[in-house]
Request: fold
Amino acid sequence: MSTLSENLKRIRKEKGLSQTELGKRIEMSPQAIHYYETGKREPNYETLRHLAGVLSVSIADLVMDKADEFEDQNRQLENDNDDLTEENQQLYDENQDLKDKLEDRENRLAGIWKQAQDLISDLVDERPYDGIQWVYDDLDEIMERADYD
Reply:
């Protein structure tokens, strides 16, 4: 059986048509449809175009080998996968850059915090005022709560 004959029969059945019904729609005998479906005859281009129109498919759908179609789809999927792989790599790289920037900012913030602690400690040491100690204690507590390692 040829690709055309297999596809014609499969598509006709998918559309719920008998050979007689399809023959009537394209003004041919059911025997002609039978011959096309068994590969005993090949339709000319006009008949092929008419069959495709009645069945609401393209001529390629009638004559193209499903393996070719799947191969084309597989090739397209591989291309799409390559594109996604490149896009994933790009997103990974961007994520790494953002992670590095975040770590840098965290380190700078930790340095600023250390400087603030040192300044407060110096203030407390220089001016032993009972009211300043609570500021230092509260800052330690705030920093402990903010520690999210």
